[in-house]
Amino acid sequence: MKPTSGAQRILLVGMMGGGKSTVGRELAARTGIPFVDNDELVERATGRTARQLADQGGAALREAESAALRAGLAVQPPAIIGVAGGAVLDPADRERIGEGGFVVWLRAPADVLAARAAGAVHRPWLDGDTEGWFRRTVAERDPLYSQVSDLEIDTGGITPAEVAEVIVAALAAGGGAGSLPSGR
Q1: pLDDT for the residue 80
Q2: What is the pLDDT of residue 180?
Q3: Strand order in the sheet with 35-36
Q4: Could you give the CA distance from residue 142 to residue 128 in angstroms, rounded to a whole number?
């Protein structure tokens, strides 16, 4: 884990369906630290929703994810930031993520991610073989998430509340939060 001091950002990374939004809200409720979700950051940075950008193709979405990451890292700490799943594909963004705060990788098996994505906002790349897309994408991205993360949590078999508790415990043990609000 990287050394830290004082209040900082907690960055949640991982695939769509890994639990970034749900865990981010749960973690915010437990710590009192504000949560900024990736979809909100994308819209703030581009004026368009993630779905609108996805309809324009991968390049537009990747640009928006980079812009959203920069916007998230501009938020004054302490803050919990949900990072777009594809942000790790860009080497410069990986560097920004790694330097941006305490990075928590929320991972899950491809079949779990595919099942969770079934109820999510439509993404054009999920048409057809959703589980196959997740298997291929997990294989591509997992080494990149591993590269930037300070803490890795398999969210496949535990609740968002349990995931938040693991993060709070890691931070309290000196895993990178610097200073969590007292009494939490």
Answers
A1: 97
A2: 40
A3: 35-36, 79-82, 9-13, 102-107, 151-154
A4: 22
Paired residues of 106 in beta bridges: 153
pLDDT tens digits, residue range 95-108? 999 999 999 999 99
Domains of the chain, with CATH numbers? 9-175 (3.40.50.300)
Q: What's the predicted TM-score (pTM) here?
A: 0.86
For 180, other C-beta atoms within 10 Å of its C-beta total 17
